[in-house]
Amino acid sequence: MLRIRLARVGKKGQPYYRVVVADVEAKRDGRIVERIGNFNPLTDPGTFDINESRALYWLSVGAQPSDAVKRLLKLQGTYKRLSRLNAGENLDTLVAEFEGGTALGADARAVAEATQAVATAAPVATATAAAVEEE
What we know:
The protein is α+β, with helices and mostly antiparallel strands. The protein folds into two domains: 2-91, CATH 3.30.1320.10; 103-135. Helices cover 53% and strands 21% of the residues. It contains five helices and five strands. The protein has helices at residues 52-60, 67-76, 78-86, 91-102, 104-134, and strands spanning 2-9, 16-23, 34-40, 47-50, 64-65. The protein has a five-stranded mixed sheet. Helix 1 (52-60) packs antiparallel against helix 4 (91-102). The protein is flat. The model is unreliable at 102-106 (pLDDT under 50).
């Protein structure tokens, strides 16, 4: 049985993880089948990059993700696309959708940018309203 999990690399006190597909009985940093991504928990928030097509492939053939990898895949939106893949959609279409920027991460960035734009525009609107009231 295969498992998608994290393999630790990096110096002492500076963890950095690879997202790998490995046999269940292999050691944490032992023999792997394929490396499909990486995860850096030191950044705020933690950054990760997982190859969507390979993750969908391994999940579709029965590889089980660890709890940490499952959380990352949900953040990336891979689980939603996996259910659509199981329903019969084409893998290439789903990967193109992810690479096109409609992934959850792109939506979160758009919401953050819109929130920042509203926050910077609010003082201007307040100042304009105060000027109108004075007249």
